[in-house]
Design brief:
The complex is a heterodimer of chains A (513) and B (352). Chain A has 513 residues and is α/β, with parallel strands linked by helices. Chain A contains 21 helices and twelve strands. Chain A is globular. The relative contact order of chain A is 0.11. In chain B, α2 crosses α3. The chains are: A alpha/beta (513), B alpha+beta (352).
Chain lengths: 513, 352
Amino acid sequence: MQLAELPTARTSLLDNLGRIRRELGPVTPELSDALADHMRIRRGEVAEVVSFYSFLGLPLDSLRVCTGPVCACRGGHELLALAQELAPEGLPAVEVACLGHCDLAPVGTRGDTILPGLSRKVLDAALAGEAAPPVAHATNDGPSLGLSRPDREASPPRLPPERVLAELEASGLVGLGGAGFPTWRKWEAVRREPGPRVVIVNADEGEPGTIKDRYLMELRPNLLLEGLLVAMEFAQAEHGYIYLREEYATARARLLEAIAALGDVYGRSIELVVGAGSYICGEETAMLESMEGRRGMPRLRPPFPAQRGFLGAPTLIDNVETLAHIPAILRNGGAWFAALGRRGEPGTRLWSLSGAVERPGCYEAGNGITLRELIEEFGGGPTDEIGAVVPGGAASGILPPAALDVPLTRAALAEWGASVGSAAVQVFPASYAPLELLTETMRFFAEESCQKCTPCRIGTRGLHHLAAGRVSFSGEELEAWLEALEQASICGLGQGAPIPVRSVKRHWPELLP
Amino acid sequence: MSGVRFTVDGRAALAESGELLLHALRRNGEAPPTLCHDDKLEPYGGCRLCLVEVEGSPRPVPSCAVRVEEGMAVTTNGGLPKLRRTLTEMLLTEHVSTAGGGRADELADLALELGAQAPFVLPDAGREPYEDRNELMGYDPDACILCGRCIRYTQDVMQCSALTFEGRGPEARIVPTHGHSWLDTECELCGGCLSVCPTGAIFEKKSTGTTMPDTALRKVKTTCTYCGVGCQLDLNVDPESGKVVKVTSDPSYLPNEGELCVKGRFSFGFINHPDRLTEPLIRGADGELHPASWEEAIAAAAAGLNGVRERHGDQAVGVLASARLTNEENYLIQKLARTALKTNSVHSCEAT
């Protein structure tokens, strides 16, 4: 590949950098400058984009070791140190916040190859170029997504937009990336804005503990494409994009195959955009910045993406799983979907189940399920005495074992100061100290903070050091910092970072001021 | 003025159509502090100090990024002063180096005003020290609060990208591109970045000679002598030594709107230089230079020029005008050349 062949539109910057890394090697300052000159972008602007991402400066076959909460609980940090010790000169071994393979923890990667059940033996084999153990899927044949069914199904019926909205409203479907905003309202808002409009699939799954979108894209890529095409037709969008995290190589290959096999889809185009290692780019406005060739720093809202999103166009951004439910909803009706829940909650969703359970995996089950039901019915029961459970990602809170029978619903969890988030249920054994879990969680927030706003930039670091016992707060100071994060942060990362701290204050009050 | 009516803490107030809430608040006697905002730049909303509550918004909003709308109900009191103090204290936990003499530090001023103190120093507050081999601008990473004003200013106003954010998370910092010296980037050393730095993290190396705080320096407004543009600037004088320690400008000054070039901002060393000529000198028969009056000096120059014309003809004289002259002065020079010296050989070095 020659640099001169690369497209020069600013929106191609991230992709160009990824291609350079794949085909020419790590993006050095010299390559960064050469690309900037070719694209007629100022050198500094390209340099600061390169340094924002974790992977652009690394060789493709680097070792990456996951230090997400479930992996950290199973020796992730020790494995990272071991990988650094074993790696030959010139081969970096770096940590990744969460590789999204928590069901196989502890994990790492050598280049694009996932190394499940990471150990000294697996590391030695990977360094010797031997084949890695296979990546298994533990899942079920759920009513809406049927992850264990074959991927090909008849396309959903083409319904007029009013009917689509009505079915979505009746289904009770909400955004399943973590925010839980009613999907029909988001869709309606985008449609109110004048075209041209854009649809983006948020496939930057990085929420610690979350593996569901990966399962979906690896097992049912066509289901996602069907949902995306419905969304594009609804929004009258010519261009659709899937923003996928770099670490999901198998999903990348499956999606590319599926997109290529689509053929003509009413003249619409679907493009895969691959990230480069940054959790915050899963925040929708940071994702837009990233796609436009800038550092992934969240935008101020309003305007919301539905009003002014990608390149200023009204943009519908939905999570992978949210879109994948839509074909079944349109085929069977919103009322059918709504009736799939438990205890009166509407709908089903994928639960990423990992940690101290017999059969970690990704299971579709009705909303309203309890932790105990999930662990017993799907996970085959706990492997250890349960010490703590994280119900849905880093900012969903930390629950004590006493909450095992609480239905995993917005209302019921709110009473416990927690939320369903991305439904990433991580079960921790009693041997893993809650304060250690909190330290890891706050370290994650601090390291992934984009540094744009004061409360997140400094608050997450202060709370990490507090959990790690390196600084001390008075109770009053701590409360003031938590409030500053909640009230004054620009995006969900900072606003949500206090939640695990509040969980620990509430359920293990002796541990914090 | 098409007035937009809104309220501030329940009091009626008036704004211009489309006006930034921050500006409208200032005109209405409320001045929320801000460290990251600059009127020349797009709203950024990063420091969060100018947060106010607007009825209907779930969280406080940055007044630097919100336009006033008819009927907007704005609150600046309630929990906001406490929030502001907490944010200031957060900044102080990382602001481990305070600006020295001659350097402005709006964060220190704000901390004083709000009675804010760092509850502790962040264990990872210290950043790698930065040394730049250029002689004009310095950067103290430990005084930097990553507000990015310098970067946005250089990129958006000066159309240069010599300064960049680098990295993410606790290791993030601001550096010249790739961490190189400013001299190895596209930087022209105009000092625009340091003129907008709120904490003195980027500073004039020459001003470090004074112990006076920035606020104690006496400002003398004058016109830059380096070219014909006529930039307005302030000579900042240390009242104790009486010497100029740095040059600044102000966004309200025309025609340069506060911007200066490397010469205007940094090349003031001649003011107190021992080699500087402070009076006319005429070389005498003894070969030495002797002080003279302006009348004597001009008469001597005229005699010399006329002598050449008499001996070699009018075209033997040519006039080369300095780039420092204004248009009007250049007009007078050509007039002098053509009518008095009767030569057509007249040129300005700005033309080449």
